[in-house]
């Protein structure tokens, strides 16, 4: 029995394990990448050449005008989209009904949008999902084939979750390829529009710690959700604009105003008061000065005497 | 309300009664549980290697027979192929497995639970036993078929991890004419304090013992066997070569407990002989019946059912069977055995000790890096 030929449209290294798995299992018949850093493009280009697979880069939205012709040349049975950054046009999708399948790295329909990892962490979800669905002309719309759920660990960062999801997506991609190969029907469930939420790409306001409004656990969730893609959550500390990369919740309570630096702890963390009377311990701070442990960051700034006592 | 358990059955030219034994185990177990409300529907999956055949058979049971729970004698790889089907259809797959292979990762599988005899883990334990008995040099002995599974990795890593050294490997041919133990002579001369870490099953155990006797008489090195080599229906036809033969068994016909007596009597009342495969079916049906209850009570919420099963345990013919939640695999006691002549041109298994605390050992075992150990055998164990 001839294996189904699958073209993968991806957005970068998140899709590497999937490409590798589909390649090893002989399903892969071509790779297209949207945007993508130079290093990633170079690796994919070289790997595609080595394995004799068609490869094309789509650096801009405009360059997508070549996509349909390229697909027609390759004639894949299915097209998988794994973190591909662009919406596919009606012209591209008309290549075939139920030919385009997206692997969304978040629960659908609750977390539509380009960065669901950020949103599930920010909202302190206990689990997330790889949602596999047929593609339509809307972002993250289309009937769901299956949802692969996985737990979010305590204090997990965006980067850690991305690695975990990337690896799990590879397994799910192979599962789906095998399903397409062997199933007599592909199951589908329409997305419940009443539960649908679309999140735009986060802006500065979304990554900014508002000491006078946000409770401690929300601040820590935001710090984890911004690490490393935003180099941390934006904050004002000692009157300076900085980014916070790592922090933990302390057992202490306080009665100070929120956002006040309380002390430098014995373990070298900066203790800061939050609005819910809780205290967070900041371990890593980033800024123009670089990425520094909190203790070293303190030395770059003039601080009140009481903090060091 | 009538419920349906599906059963994916393989065939074997090696253990010809394999599918009959599995089926009889399931049927007799449900009868013992007085579960007349559960019907069993079967589908054939060949040797368990054909992905298309397995997928279609599972589809048939889910879509046309409306089975909520399916028992399947397949390996981890085939379970992965079926995984999205069960996920999409909201059904529970209970993999019945000899455990001759081990997965490279032990991922969370919300729709799949594994009921295994853990032959690879048993191989690991038997090798450790050899080291504990004072043997520092191991010769790994297997055949073309058995050697293709990761139980060989299990026995070698168990031996070296316990401080032993694998000083010799021998994999003999698959046909009677090619089957030879002559290459063991040199190893025996070089390492008189060695042990033979031996992985065979079925007829090959008989051939192995015959060859040992031919080459060494009763002076062969001590032999250590994994669970499937301690299978008693095959051993009773194997002429004991003399000398020391020990092993780790998952079960014995002679275990003295009431559940085992009921199991054996139930299987024998249908004219069959109780063996590892009928036991796998028997225990699988107990888990299946519980799963059917939970699926019905919780509206096919499979993730919840699988989580709830983590707390399920029962006293079975080989002792308490319970779940290791992080891997969704069942665990049960293992047994240290001594293989002796039954005085009638065959062997019998003498259980020397029950190993109760297998959790710590199992967790140490699954934490071992497999490095480059890979099995090319896709079929269910002994399905050739």
TrEMBL record, chain A:
Keyword Manganese belongs to the record: no
Gene3D superfamilies: 3.40.50.12230
Gene Ontology MF terms: methionyl-tRNA formyltransferase activity
Keyword Hydrolase included in the entry's annotation: no
Signal sequence segment: none
Occurrences of domain Formyl transferase C-terminal (ranges): 206-285
Cited InterPro entries: Formyl_trans_C, Formyl_transf_N, Formyl_transf_N_sf, Formyl_transferase-like_C_sf
CC annotations in GO: cytosol
Coiled coil: none
Domain Formyl transferase N-terminal: 61-165
Entry keywords, A to Z: Transferase
Protein name as annotated: Methionyl-tRNA formyltransferase
Organism the protein comes from: Fluviicola chungangensis
Biological classification of the source: Bacteria, Pseudomonadati, Bacteroidota, Flavobacteriia, Flavobacteriales
From TrEMBL, chain B:
Annotated InterPro entries: Leu-bd (IPR028081), Peripla_BP_I (IPR028082)
Keywords: Signal
SUPFAM superfamilies in alphabetical order: Periplasmic binding protein-like I
Domain Leucine-binding protein: 3-343
Family the UniProt entry places it in: Belongs to the leucine-binding protein family.
Protein's UniProt name: ABC transporter substrate-binding protein
Species, as recorded: Fluviicola chungangensis
């Amino acid at each position: 029995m001839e294996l189904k030929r699958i073209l993968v449209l991806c957005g970068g290294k998140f899709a590497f394990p999937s490409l590798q798995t589909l390649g090893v299992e002989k399903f892969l018949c071509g790779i297209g990448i949207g945007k993508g850093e130079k290093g990633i493009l170079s690796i994919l280009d070289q790997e595609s050449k080595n394995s004799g697979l068609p490869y094309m880069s789509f650096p801009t939205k405009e360059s997508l005008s070549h996509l349909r012709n390229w697909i027609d040349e390759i004639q894949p049975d299915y097209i998988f989209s794994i973190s591909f950054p662009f919406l596919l046009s009606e012209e591209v999708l008309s290549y075939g009904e139920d030919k385009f399948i997206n692997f969304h790295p978040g629960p659908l329909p609750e977390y539509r949008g380009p960065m669901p990892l950020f949103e599930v962490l920010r909202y302190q979800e206990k689990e997330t999902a790889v949602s596999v669905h047929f593609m339509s002309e809307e972002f993250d719309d289309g009937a769901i084939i299956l949802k692969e759920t996985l737990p979010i660990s305590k204090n997990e960062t965006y980067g850690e979750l991305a690695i975990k999801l990337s690896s799990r997506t590879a397994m799910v991609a192979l599962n789906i390829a095998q399903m397409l190969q062997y199933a007599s029907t592909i199951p589908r469930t329409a997305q419940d529009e009443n539960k649908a939420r679309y999140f735009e790409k986060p802006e500065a306001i979304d990554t900014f710690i508002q000491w006078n409004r946000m409770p401690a656990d929300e601040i820590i969730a935001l710090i984890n959700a911004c690490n490393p893609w935003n180099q941390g959550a934006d904050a004002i500390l000692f009157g300076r604009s900085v980014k916070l990369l790592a922090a933990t919740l302390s057992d202490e309570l306080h009665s100070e105003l929120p956002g006040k630096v309380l002390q430098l702890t014995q373990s070298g963390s900066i203790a800061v008061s939050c609005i819910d009377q809780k205290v967070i311990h900041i371990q890593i701070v980033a800024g123009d000065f670089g990425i520094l442990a909190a203790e070293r960051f303190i030395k770059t700034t003039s601080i009140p005497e009481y903090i060091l006592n | 309300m009538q419920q349906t358990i599906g059963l994916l059955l393989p065939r074997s030219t090696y253990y010809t009664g394999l599918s009959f034994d599995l089926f009889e185990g399931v049927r007799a177990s449900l009868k013992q549980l007085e579960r007349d409300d559960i019907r069993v529907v079967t589908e054939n999956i060949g040797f368990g290697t054909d992905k298309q055949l397995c997928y279609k058979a599972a589809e048939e049971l889910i879509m046309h027979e409306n089975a909520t729970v399916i028992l399947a004698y397949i390996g981890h790889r085939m379970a992965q192929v079926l995984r999205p089907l069960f996920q999409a259809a909201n059904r529970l797959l209970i993999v019945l497995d000899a455990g001759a292979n081990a997965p490279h990762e032990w991922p969370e599988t919300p729709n799949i639970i594994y009921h295994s005899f853990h032959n690879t883990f048993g191989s690991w334990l038997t090798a450790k036993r050899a080291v504990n008995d004072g043997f520092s040099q191991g010769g790994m002995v297997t055949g073309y078929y058995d050697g293709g599974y990761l139980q060989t990795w299990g026995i070698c890593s168990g031996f070296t991890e316990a401080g032993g050294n694998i000083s010799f490997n021998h994999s003999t041919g698959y046909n009677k004419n090619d089957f030879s133990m002559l290459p063991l002579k040199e190893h025996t001369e070089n390492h008189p304090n060695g042990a033979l870490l031996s992985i065979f099953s079925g007829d090959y155990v008989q051939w192995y013992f015959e060859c040992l006797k031919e080459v060494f008489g009763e002076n062969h090195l001590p032999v250590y066997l994994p669970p499937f080599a301690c299978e008693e229906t095959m051993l009773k036809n194997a002429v004991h070569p003399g000398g020391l033969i020990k092993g780790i068994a998952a079960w014995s016909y002679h275990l003295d407990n009431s559940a085992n007596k009921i199991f054996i009597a139930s299987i024998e009342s249908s004219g069959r002989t109780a063996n590892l495969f009928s036991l796998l079916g028997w225990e699988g049906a107990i888990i299946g019946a519980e799963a059917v209850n939970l699926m019905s009570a919780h509206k096919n919420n499979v993730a919840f059912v699988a989580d709830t099963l983590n707390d399920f345990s029962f006293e079975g013919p080989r002792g308490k069977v319970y779940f290791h939640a992080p891997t969704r695999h069942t665990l049960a006691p293992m047994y240290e055995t001594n293989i002796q002549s039954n005085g009638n041109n065959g062997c019998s298994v003498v259980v020397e000790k029950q190993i109760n605390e297998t959790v710590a050992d199992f967790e140490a075992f699954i934490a071992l890096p497999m490095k480059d150990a890979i099995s090319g055998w896709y079929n269910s164990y002994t399905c050739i």
